[in-house]
């Protein structure tokens, strides 16, 4: 069975449901850089223009999760779990007005998992 | 000496058109201090309606301010600087309360640089001259600068007042009107600064709106009536800002962070002198502002021939870092700016351990007996290799990733093996090496035998994914202006084509 690269905690899935009710279909893009970087950003689907070097890593609770190829270089050996904590990030991520912030928790894949990982695809191949 | 937590009002408003204006929808959010999670004040949770109002008021003001003289704008900068200087201790204490940083930093670094930024741009605008060229005996071409109009600015939470000053000063001094949104984690220092300088400003020239990114920042950045947007933050929002700017065909400047290498060559250990002492401090600068600096020297590259001895000295210096009460001048490290930031840093410490990096010190929370609810993390050092995530991703916390190199070539290879290119440092007693390496590093700032100094007049900005544009320098004046070419012929005769 193919090993997924991304997953989501129950608490984060509940927040996704709340946001989806309000904003419709959603997407996630993993940010890099300073301040609130290195965190997942949640946008209405299509709000963030994906480019030729963005990659699709998989779905979390019905939302595509994307990452720039430069950044994926350092995530290819890690499982990415999207969680949610109390917090106040500064960015355009949709959960922030709720007083919550999505964050990632990482785990290094085992050798066994590495041999059967879901292949990543170019973001523009996803509808 | 200990400072006191300042007194705050229960509630602040937006500053629009020269008045304190409640948010149209009447919503507010609670601003808290990361020092102890205590309530500071209620802050407007603005929406696109408030953004529309602020931009409209700014355009009204532009009709006059856009035609003001450089002398008048320069004088405003000096008056603001003087007013802030008179209130430096209050503003520093506010910044410490809102952001969590130690008072010695807000007083000795942030506010000093804020004040100087206004004076620097006040000086720049008076001393520059335009250009006039005689194309031929009867044709003259003139390059004339004109302000853009109303500009939008979104600032980060790590240096709330300083990043505001970096953006406000060049925009106002070139004749623009500003709508600025502080970060929702640290809104209050800019509001108190506005209370202090309000009587100096023509109404509508500088407008401050507060709120969350998606509700207030996005309507500002994507507004069809702004003529430029300036942003400091992370890459996804940076891309969105540039995307909105593309839709409106306006310029955007973005500063998006880094993973700055700090390179120590073996000659630093040639003498046991004051320069070695300075180099050790240079490494420990990763802990400045709790590591929440875009140019944090978060990767230390140490020549392998000196690694053991040099690192031992550095670790001793790191262990001497005092934590405790951020309001106490002797405290070296304060609180991380927010709970989510604190959680993210801890998750990266976990990743570093999982990746097999060797933990040399720290690696855990600091139990602050004085403020058990605050967000404190011990200065942390990992030894590992440059392909690890802790070497490649900006953690924005007091976490240093250390590795070694053999020679100059390998040092440059490691230094440049990153998606970012904002800051960098190099330490050496060899002037030829200093030249070669500083030219070889792909970054907008190379500190040579120093680090974390930010004098106005030294440009600041990124290579690669660290963003576009340069701040903290007179060249930013043109980032806030149109250039108009007026080409005049003094010849009465036609060209002869038609």
Task: Tell me what the structure shows.
The complex is a heterodimer of chains A (127) and B (498). Chain A is an alpha/beta fold. Helix content of chain A is 17%, strand content 36%. Chain A has helices spanning 10-23, 69-72, 111-114, and strands spanning 6-8, 26-30, 40-44, 54-60, 63-68, 78-86, 100-108, 121-122. Chain B is α/β, with parallel strands linked by helices. Chain B has 2 domains: 14-256 and 466-484, Aldehyde Dehydrogenase, Chain A, domain 1 (3-Layer(aba) Sandwich); 261-448, Aldehyde Dehydrogenase, Chain A, domain 2 (3-Layer(aba) Sandwich). Chain B has helices at residues 48-65, 70-86, 88-99, 103-127, 160-173, 188-197, 213-221, 235-248, 274-284, 307-319, 339-354, 389-392, 408-416, 431-440; strands spanning 14-16, 19-21, 28-32, 39-44, 131-136, 139-147, 150-154, 177-181, 206-208, 229-232, 252-255, 261-264, 299-303, 358-361, 380-383, 399-405, 420-421, 425-427, 447-448, 463-464, 467-468, 481-489. The N and C termini of chain B lie far apart (82 Å). At the A-B interface, strand 6 and strand 7 of A face helix 7, helix 8 and helix 11 of B.
Q: What does this entry show, briefly?
A:
Chain A has three helices and eight strands, in the order βαββββαββαβ. Chain A is of the alpha/beta class. The longest helix of chain A is centred in the N-terminal third of the chain and has 14 residues, at 10-23.
Main traits of this protein?
heterodimer; A: 127 residues; alpha/beta; Hypothetical Protein Aq_1857, Chain: A; five-stranded mixed sheet; three-stranded mixed sheet; 3 helices; 8 strands; globular; B: 498 residues; Aldehyde Dehydrogenase, Chain A, domain 1; Aldehyde Dehydrogenase, Chain A, domain 2; seven-stranded mixed sheet; six-stranded mixed sheet; 14 helices; 22 strands; 19% strand
């Amino acid at each position: 069975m193919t090993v997924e690269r991304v997953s989501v905690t129950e608490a984060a899935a509940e927040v996704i449901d709340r946001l989806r009710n309000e904003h419709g279909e959603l997407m996630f893009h993993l940010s890099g850089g300073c301040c609130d970087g290195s965190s997942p950003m949640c946008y209405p689907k299509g709000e963030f223009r994906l480019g030729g070097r963005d990659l699709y890593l998989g779905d979390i609770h019905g939302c595509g999760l994307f990452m720039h190829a430069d950044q994926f270089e350092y995530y290819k050996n890690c499982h990415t779990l999207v969680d949610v904590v109390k917090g106040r990030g500064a960015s355009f991520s949709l959960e922030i007005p709720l007083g919550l912030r999505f964050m990632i928790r990482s785990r290094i894949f085992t050798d066994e998992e590495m041999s059967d990982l879901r292949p990543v695809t170019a973001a523009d191949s996803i509808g | 000496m200990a400072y006191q937590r300042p007194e705050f009002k229960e509630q602040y408003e937006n500053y629009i058109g020269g008045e304190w204006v409640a948010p149209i929808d009447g919503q507010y959010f609670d601003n808290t201090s990361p020092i102890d999670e205590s309530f500071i004040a209620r802050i407007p949770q603005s929406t696109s309606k408030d953004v529309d109002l602020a931009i409209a008021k700014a355009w009204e003001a532009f009709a006059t301010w856009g035609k003001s003289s450089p002398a008048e704008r320069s004088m405003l900068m000096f008056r603001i600087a003087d007013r802030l200087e008179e209130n430096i201790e209050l503003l520093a204490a506010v910044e410490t309360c809102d952001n969590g940083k130690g008072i010695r930093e807000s007083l000795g670094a942030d506010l000093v640089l804020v004040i100087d930024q206004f004076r620097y741009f006040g000086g720049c605008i008076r001393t520059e001259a335009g250009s006039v060229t005689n194309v031929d005996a009867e044709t003259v071409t003139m390059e004339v600068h004109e302000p853009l109009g109303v500009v939008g600015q979104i600032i980060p939470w790590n240096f709330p007042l300083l990043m505001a000053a970096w953006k406000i000063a060049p925009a106002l001094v070139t004749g623009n009107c500003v709508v600025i949104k502080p970060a929702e984690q640290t809104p209050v220092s800019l509001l108190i600064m506005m209370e202090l300088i309000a009587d100096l400003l023509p109404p509508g020239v500088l407008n401050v709106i507060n709120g969350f990114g998606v509700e207030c920042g996005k309507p500002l950045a994507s507004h069809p009536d702004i003529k430029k947007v300036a942003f400091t933050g992370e890459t996804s929002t940076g891309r969105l800002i540039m995307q909105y700017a593309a839709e409106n065909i306006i310029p955007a400047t973005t500063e998006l962070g880094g993973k700055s290498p700090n390179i120590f060559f073996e000659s630093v250990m040639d003498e046991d002198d004051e320069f070695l002492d300075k180099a050790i401090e240079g490494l420990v600068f990763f802990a400045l502002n709790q590591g929440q600096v875009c140019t944090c020297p978060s990767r230390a590259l140490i020549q392998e021939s000196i690694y053991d001895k040099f690192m031992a000295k550095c670790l001793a210096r790191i262990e001497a870092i005092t934590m405790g009460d951020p309001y106490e001048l002797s405290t070296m490290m304060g609180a991380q700016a927010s709970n989510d930031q604190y959680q993210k840093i801890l998750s990266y410490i976990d990743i570093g351990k999982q990746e097999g990096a060797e933990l040399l010190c720290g690696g855990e929370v600091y139990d602050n007996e004085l403020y058990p609810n605050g967000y404190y993390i011990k200065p942390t050092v990992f030894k590992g290799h440059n392909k690890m995530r802790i070497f490649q991703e900006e953690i924005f916390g007091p976490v240093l990733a250390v590795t070694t190199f053999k020679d100059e070539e390998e040092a440059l290879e490691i230094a440049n093996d990153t998606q970012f290119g904002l800051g960098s440092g190099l330490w050496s007693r060899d002037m030829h090496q200093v030249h070669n390496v500083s030219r070889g590093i792909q970054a907008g700032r190379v500190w040579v035998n120093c680090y974390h100094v930010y004098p106005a007049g030294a440009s600041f900005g990124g290579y690669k994914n660290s963003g576009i544009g340069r701040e903290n320098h007179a060249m930013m004046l043109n980032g806030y202006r149109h250039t108009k070419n007026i080409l005049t012929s003094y010849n009465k005769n036609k060209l002869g084509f038609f």
